[in-house]
Amino acid sequence: MAIEMRQQMKLSQQLVMTPQLQQAIKLLQLSRLELQDVVRQELEENPLLDEIAEAEETKEVEQLELNEKEPEPEAPVSEFQEVTAGEETKEMDWESYLDGYNYSAGEQYYDDEERPSFENLLTKKSTLFDHLMWQLSLTRLTDEEMQIGTEIIGNIDEDGYFRASIGEVAAVCGTDESTVEGALKRIQEFDPAGVAARDLGECLLLQVKALGIGGSLVESLLTYHLKDLEARKYKQAARALGVEVNDILAATRIIAGLDPKPGRLFGQDDVQYISADIFVYKIGEEYVVVLNDEGLPNLRINPLYYNTEEKAGVNADAKAEAYINDKMRSALWLIKSIQQRQRTVYKVAKSLVKFQRDFLDKGIEYLRPLVLRDIAEDIGMHESTISRVTTNKYMQTPQGLYELKYFFNSGISTNEGDFIASESVKNKIKEIVDAEDQRKPYSDQRLAELLAAHNINIARRTVTKYREMLRIGSSSERKKHF
């Protein structure tokens, strides 16, 4: 067979991701806070995009109140006209975009008492480094000792442990190791107790000395039998020290009250609070879904630039006109994409509320097994769209705050032929463990038998997997000897 080159025409269909479609997909998977950043950035970069000022919104509210007092004949509400690529912007229904767009969908219901308070605002916390340097500055030291102390404190991690070696600090400061050792001992006397330790044993010993019980059985246990304590070999430690097991247990209670990470009180990470994207309220017998649009600017097309374009007409500079048209399309597509995003999020939230009605009424035990396909078929969208919508978004419900992905979980069959959500099974395991006798904790096999008594048939290895996912220790780790 001869090898030759030839040209031929072929007709085929393929999906082309336009910039507008890429933007819509990107906005769909953003959280509300991330969407705020995108909108703010676009407001800074696009002069044709405008935000309705708070004063104008107040006037609109007042006008609405006047209209309620003096009702007028209802007029049909015109929806936003969709823009397609290449469509002339001058033929648009500009009134909708000039007046602004409210992102919220569905019925509105707000309760000021359930809104987060702005009174308790976080300020910058004092770090462990700042706290130790403050104490160092109050100590009478020579310039050399101050340099060594600063180097030591700079090598203390967020848990309060000294993570360098004496030799390394001595080499950096150009001094001998005995001087560094002396400076380290002085810093180990600082607050919090146990700081600047090189390992767990030294950290606990420093706290014992700070409590004034140095030389006791507690210090002997930490010095010679820390491994036995970790393995709960109390009898072996008692025989080695020549004391009763009860004395070992009494000393263990004191050790259990010590802090293995003394520096965590000065954690440098600020608390990040989750802001709900969706609120679900129960009014009477119905659940109402409200999108949280707090912080989202009310966007519109700037009338100044639009009027300028109309007046300029054919006499306008070609480059300026092309620039204005480009920014106009960009602004319109952003407004349309946000509008479409909010509608999609609202539809998904409404569908979730419909499927998880029992959970909203009765709690986590009634969480229904659900997959993305169920929601996709219910609202007529693709599973990938549902996956993007449920990413990084949270719903405030009467049962608490949950990520949207929380409502999607596999099902486990019961003795009665029904299915129960895996999250409900995890919750049941946690309830059983919380109620067990800590002196005689249940094994995984016993947990499986107790679940079977509640019509939940799962294997022991499944119980082990769920227990580990819940970060619950094994029966030997949960056992309390005192």
Question: What report would you give on this structure?
Answer:
About 50% of the residues lie in helices and about 5% in strands. It has about 475 residues and is α+β, with helices and mostly antiparallel strands. It has three domains: about 20-65 and about 90-110 and about 275-395, no CATH class; about 130-265, no CATH class; about 410-480, Homeodomain-like (Arc Repressor Mutant, subunit A, Orthogonal Bundle), CATH 1.10.10.60. The protein has a four-stranded mixed sheet with strand order 3-2-5-6, covered by helices on one side. Strands 1-4 form a two-stranded antiparallel sheet. The chain has a two-stranded antiparallel sheet with strand order 7-8. β2 and β3 form a beta hairpin. The protein is extended. The termini are far apart. The model is unreliable at about 70-90, about 105-115 and about 120 (pLDDT under 50).
Summary, kept brief:
The chain has helices spanning 19-28, 32-45, 54-69, 94-99, 128-137, 143-154, 166-173, 177-187, 200-210, 217-224, 226-230, 234-241, 245-256, 303-312, 318-355, 357-362, 372-379, 383-389, 422-435, 444-453, 460-469, 475-478; strands spanning 49-51, 278-283, 286-291, 299-301, 394-397, 400-403, 411-413, 419-421.
SSE topology sketch:
Layout lengths: L18 H10 L3 H14 L3 E3 L2 H16 L24 H6 L28 H10 L5 H12 L11 H8 L3 H11 L12 H11 L6 H8 L1 H5 L3 H8 L3 H12 L21 E6 L2 E6 L7 E3 L1 H10 L5 H38 L1 H6 L9 H8 L3 H7 L4 E4 L2 E4 L7 E3 L5 E3 H14 L8 H10 L6 H10 L5 H4 L4
Parallel strand pairs: 2-5
Antiparallel strand pairs: 1-4, 2-3, 5-6, 7-8
Helix pairs in contact: 1-15, 5-6, 6-7, 6-8, 7-8, 9-10, 12-13, 15-17, 17-18, 20-21
